[in-house]
């Protein structure tokens, strides 16, 4: 019985012809639909979405950019103060880390391998 009712409604739906334009599907809250992520985001999520649209990464969520470590292209180390401890794994397979203080100003070299590091000011988003 239920199968016959389903079959009848399916045949009716297939044979009826719509005249006029089919309304476009919309998801916008203004049109009474489901709100998008941008429309319903609040707080920290909204700040992150807005910054991502502007191409910023305020919470360092993306993969860090690669630098060569030369004097012309030093590794940029963000810091909220005027110094920061840096650990350098001088070669890829090294099991030890060379730790040293990096101070604000000119780029400094790793005491072991000579890679250049430069401290850049970083401001917290809030
Ligand atoms: Zn090093």
UniProtKB/TrEMBL annotation:
InterPro entries: Cyt_c_oxidase_su5b, Cyt_c_oxidase_su5b_sf. It is found in: Mitochondrion inner membrane. Keywords: Acetylation, Membrane, Metal-binding, Mitochondrion, Mitochondrion inner membrane, Transit peptide, Zinc. CDD domains: Cyt_c_Oxidase_Vb. Pfam families: COX5B. GO terms for molecular function: metal ion binding. The modification N6-acetyllysine is found at residues 65, 83, 118. GO terms for biological process: mitochondrial electron transport, cytochrome c to oxygen. SUPFAM superfamilies: Rubredoxin-like (SSF57802). One of its GO terms (cellular component) is mitochondrial inner membrane. Zn(2+) binds at residues 88, 90, 110, 113. This is Cytochrome c oxidase subunit 5B, mitochondrial. It comes from Mastacembelus armatus (zig-zag eel). The lineage of its organism: Eukaryota, Metazoa, Chordata, Craniata, Vertebrata.
